[in-house]
Amino acid sequence: MANIEHLQTVHVPALKVYETLTTAEGLAEIWTNELITGNQIGFINEFRFGSNDITKMRIEELIPNKKVVWHCIDSDPEWIGTMISFDIQEKNGKSYITLRHMNWKEVTPFYRSCNYNWAIFLYSLKSYCEDGEGIPYHKRKF
């Protein structure tokens, strides 16, 4: 199995990062503004990327200011069954976010594309947390 892993430093406290990753307001600013989200274990977040592209993520773990884990239950076939985790560590007023997209069956062109797009996601998170403006899907040029 293959994993995607990225590390991003954000110059804000962990609380801001955690709130961004667990609220509709935050996720709309950094990923997509077409969404249904909750912030409780077992809730199924829905993210839309255009009319026919939906991703459903069941929330598996929430540790305030430290960790968010999603299990993909519906999306592109290569995503179904994968896990996405955000580990947040705060040190001296900065947050270090480790994103892991785990349990890919193989490295494919789609895997490589997603690897790139997760990096853009983290850059969007950083931009939103530090400057108040992210780069969600509807603002990106593909």
Description:
- By secondary structure, the protein is α+β, with helices and mostly antiparallel strands.
- Helices cover 27% and strands 38% of the residues.
- The chain has helices spanning 14-22, 24-30, 109-131, and strands spanning 2-10, 35-36, 44-48, 54-63, 67-74, 83-91, 94-104.
- Strands 1-7-6-5-4-3-2 form a 7-stranded antiparallel β-sheet, with helices on one face.
- Strand 5 (67-74) and strand 6 (83-91) form a beta hairpin.
- This is ATPase.
- Belongs to the AHA1 family.
- Residues 12-129 form the Activator of Hsp90 ATPase homologue 1/2-like C-terminal domain.
Features:
142 residues, single chain, 3 helices, globular, Alpha-D-Glucose-1,6-Bisphosphate, Chain A, domain 4
> Quick one: CATH class?
Alpha Beta
Average pLDDT metric: 96
In which range does the helix fraction lie? 25-40%
Counting structural domains, the number is 1
Largest pleated sheet: 7 strands, antiparallel
Shape: globular
Q: First CA to last CA: what distance?
A: 28 Å
* Sequence of strands across the biggest β-sheet: 1-7-6-5-4-3-2
The whole-angstrom Rg is 14 Å
CATH architecture descriptor name: 2-Layer Sandwich
Tell me the strand percentage band: 35-45%
**Count of individual helical segments:** 3
